[in-house]
Specification:
single chain; about 625 residues; alpha/beta; 6-stranded antiparallel β-sheet
């Protein structure tokens, strides 16, 4: 039967949903579940396992399919199961968990982190990344298993309310504190030990790449019709009842997948990313846990894909990880040394770019770079601020004098009137300092590495006359999560794929070095420039909202300057005077955290602003 290409696309979506994806993770055993409820503030991980080992944690029986959790509360689940006798040794296994995910708002509602019985973390789970490695493709066991095949794991599940739902930005009463009540309970639907069949996952991604490109290809082009014919042959070859048919179905797509990108195609440096807001639709205390979950996900992908690279900013978030999860921090440090986990930005947090005083922006860099050098062994070369609501014209001067050579942002693509004419250019500050600046042409910092985003990058790129190079940040962000396995699989298929830009994993420093060199060589004296501030037009009220908090920030900046001046004078006048370095550093770091670009501008939930006001009042009193 002949089907038109658009009918083949609908057929493809149906077959993937009904007949391919269900075979990626066939269940071989259901886990037994028990629960321990913490309706208020979360218990630190080390405290939980210390109490567990003393026998002070009282788990209750839990039935899968039941509701769990209270608003902003935590439930620890004990998961126990047995690998079936006779299961082939070394064959890949994964846990699949469904805590009651919505198919959207990744990072905006429930999440969890899975631990071994010794308290070491394995990997996080969230709505679009719900697998946990058990035995990987190389036969390495990630979960300790007893001789009888039994095993025990622990899942720390955060029952965070969905505050950015559908429709978004509706009023809510759940953004101020943990209520201790199940205002919007979730249902723990399933917990299974499954076989992981890579053949079906590879086929699913192949079909996604081919069908997605068809949606954006010129329907009169030979490429479109070649893709349509290959898709038809592949779907005809696939027989759900015969697992061996998957290879024949993939072979039918191999020819169109292997056709290389055009010689003039754009070059895209792809970098895994998560952009974890230090507070937004969640309080700061939840961000600490989001960091651990997201980093554990990135490390799991590095174990599976030896080419994958991931970038993360904010010294504060690394410091939280070091304090809360030394096991994850140790694993991350090894990847940093390999050059695959890339600390970027060198600031304490990704601060607002307009409201802090110049001295505060300098301290963001000073405290951030000090931590990066002493704790991570790296010295970042560029400013990484993809999401701040505008940027002062003093930034080029501050960045250059701090030793930076490049600047990354993208937020002005949201402007409602003024759009910058270039993606790469020299940004000239108010004093004449210049720094090479790039806006990712995907107009986002959380690409899903889809064909849609790849096509948009190439069509949207504004520097085609001077450069063929752009950067792509991919992975779920804001609420964390980062890249998922399907994104990395698409990256490899897009490395050289006709009709798409050429994609390769890269590092920010390498990208900026090549991009600046190539643009200068091509443009010469006509190198594009932008002078003065980057004014963000969409979020104008961030300059005036939450005025009491903004007043506290300015008072504390002024008081810190005064105290430091007086301390310096006292040090000169009295040999017995001891400058209170530790106290001043603590106050500065709290101030810098509260200058994060969703706290100081007033764009977070009430909880974040209330805590910030309390901390300003506390530290102003300490400085008085």
């Amino acid at each position: 039967m002949f089907l038109k290409p658009e009918q083949q696309l609908e057929r493809c979506k149906r077959i993937v949903r009904q007949r391919v994806d269900p075979h990626i993770h066939p269940s071989i055993a259901q886990l037994a579940v028990e629960s321990f409820d913490i309706p208020g503030e979360p218990m630190p991980t080390d405290e939980f396992f210390a109490k567990l080992n003393r026998g002070d944690i009282d788990f209750k029986p839990f039935t899968l399919g039941s509701e769990w959790g209270t608003t902003w509360g935590t439930v620890w689940f004990r998961l126990t199961g047995t690998v079936p006798a006779g299961y082939p040794k070394g064959k890949p296994l994964e846990l699949i968990l469904d805590l009651g995910w919505y198919p959207h708002s990744c990072g905006g509602h429930i999440e969890g982190l899975v631990y071994r019985a010794d308290g070491t973390a394995i990997k996080a789970v969230h709505p679009l990344n719900y697998w946990v490695p058990f035995i990987d493709a190389e036969g390495n066991a990630q979960v300790p298993v007893a001789e009888d095949g039994s095993f025990t794991l622990y899942l720390e599940a955060a029952s965070n309310p969905l505050l950015l739902g559908v429709p978004p930005f509706i009023e809510t009463e759940l953004g101020d504190h943990a209520t201790g009540k199940p205002d919007e309970p979730y249902v723990f639907k399933s917990a299974d030990l499954t076989e992981f069949d890579e053949r079906y996952e590879n086929y699913s991604v192949d079909l996604d790449v081919v069908s997605s490109l068809m949606e954006f290809a010129d329907k009169q082009s030979p490429r479109y019709w070649q893709l349509a014919k290959a898709l038809q042959r592949s779907l005809n070859a696939y027989d759900e009842r015969n697992p061996e048919s998957v290879e024949a179905a993939r072979a039918a797509l191999a020819g169109v997948l292997a056709k290389p990108a055009n010689a003039s195609a754009m070059n895209v440096s792809a970098i895994g990313h998560a952009h974890i807001d230090s507070a937004w639709l969640w309080p700061v205390r939840e961000t600490r846990r989001k960091v651990a979950r997201t980093v554990s996900n990135a490390l799991a992908l590095m174990d599976a894909d030896p080419d994958f690279k991931y970038a993360m900013s904010s010294a504060q978030q690394y410091a939280w990880l070091e304090e809360d999860h030394p096991d994850i921090f140790k694993r991350m440090k090894r990847r940093i040394e390999e050059g695959r986990f890339i600390p970027v930005g060198g600031m304490w947090v990704e601060a607002d770019g307009m409201l802090p005083a110049g001295e505060s922006l300098i301290r963001q860099i000073a405290y951030g770079r000090k931590y990066f050098k002493e704790h991570l062994g790296v010295e970042p070369k560029g400013v990484w601020l993809p999401d701040s609501f505008g940027y002062t014209g003093a930034w080029p001067q501050i960045a250059k004098r701090s030793g930076y050579s490049w600047f990354l942002t993208q937020k002005l693509c949201w402007n409602d009137t003024t759009r910058l004419p270039r993606h790469s250019f020299m940004w000239e500050g108010v004093d004449g300092s210049q720094i090479f600046t790039h806006f990712p042409p995907a107009d986002k910092y959380d690409s899903d590495m889809s064909a849609h985003d790849m096509a948009y990058v190439q069509s949207n790129y504004k520097d085609k006359d001077l450069s063929d190079r752009g950067i792509l940040l991919f992975g779920y962000g804001d609420g964390g999560g980062g890249p998922i396995r399907e994104m990395t699989m698409r990256e490899h298929r897009f490395e050289s794929f006709e009709g798409m830009p050429k994609v390769e994993y890269g590092t920010p420093d390498d990208f900026f070095s090549k991009a600046e060199t190539e643009m200068k060589a091509e443009a010469g004296s006509e190198m594009p420039r932008w002078k003065g501030e980057f004014y963000f037009e969409l979020h104008r009220k961030t300059l005036t909202s939450q005025q009491e908090m903004k007043r506290g920030c300015r008072k504390e900046e002024s008081m810190l300057r005064t105290v430091e001046y007086l301390g310096a004078v006292a040090s000169l006048e009295s040999a017995d005077y001891v400058y209170p370095t530790e106290r001043i550093d603590r106050i500065w770091k709290t101030l810098l955290l509260n200058q994060f670009h969703d706290i100081l501008p007033g764009s977070a939930i009430e909880w974040a602003h209330r805590v910030a006001r309390e901390e300003y009042a506390r530290d102003l009193k300490a400085l008085s």
